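Entry: Fe-S metabolism associated domain-containing protein
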Amino acid sequence: MTPLPDTILAPHPFGTDITEQQLIENFQHCNLWEDRYRQLIMLARKLPSLPDKLKQQQIEISGCENRVWLGHQLRPDGHLHFYGDSEGRIVKGLLAVILTAVEGKAPEQILQTPLTELFQQLGLAQQLSGSRLNGVQSLINTIQDIARTSVQ
């Protein structure tokens, strides 16, 4: 994949304005699943909806309960920009968690990022249904595949 110009498709606050450390701190205050659920909904609201022209079939992820789109760009500096959307609020919040951990990183860094552990640390993995966990794993696998093919 060749680097794209400086124009970033579908910008969002995750990984820049909203950091992984902030997520961890916010979720540490959640004792009940309902509190974590509310955090996911708030994250989903902060992830801008993708314009319809970006919701292309080739970036739609299979294996998720709701329709999910995950696109990416290789920036001129060799780092990756990810963008996405989902029809489901919880799934969109889960996508926001993942974007926070991978946005703007070099492919090598992404491959070393323990995404599954982040869900454990936030107390989400224990609460998600099997099908939602499979969907999260599909997203993680897709991001890792993108990172592998983008290593320079």
